[in-house]
Design a protein that fits this description.
Blueprint: E1 2-7, E2 12-14, H1 15-21, H2 28-36, E3 40-42, E4 45-46, E5 53-55, E6 59-62, E7 65-70
Parallel strand pairs: 1-7
Antiparallel strand pairs: 2-5, 3-4, 3-6, 6-7
Length: about 70
């Protein structure tokens, strides 16, 4: 399992953009497709909202990759 840490630059980041910024997809559109396919979890629950706001303290999981989101 790969553990990544993302440092927020603002109050939140949209989930599709987070996936792009962490290099798990090549574009925000591809990130939206990943979310819509049901393979992305936030805090252990499947997230289907393509632009869900991810805030500090939340954990996003896709496959064997976990992203911990930290405050700025």
């Amino acid at each position: 399992m790969q553990n990544l840490v993302f440092d927020l630059q603002s109050e939140y980041v949209e989930i599709n953009q987070l996936l792009k910024l962490e290099g798990l997809c090549s574009s925000g559109g591809e990130g939206k497709q990943l979310v819509a396919s049901g393979v992305v979890k936030v805090d252990g629950a499947v997230e289907l909202r393509k632009t869900a706001k991810i805030r500090a303290g939340q954990v996003v999981t896709i496959g064997s990759v976990t992203i911990s989101v930290r405050a700025p």
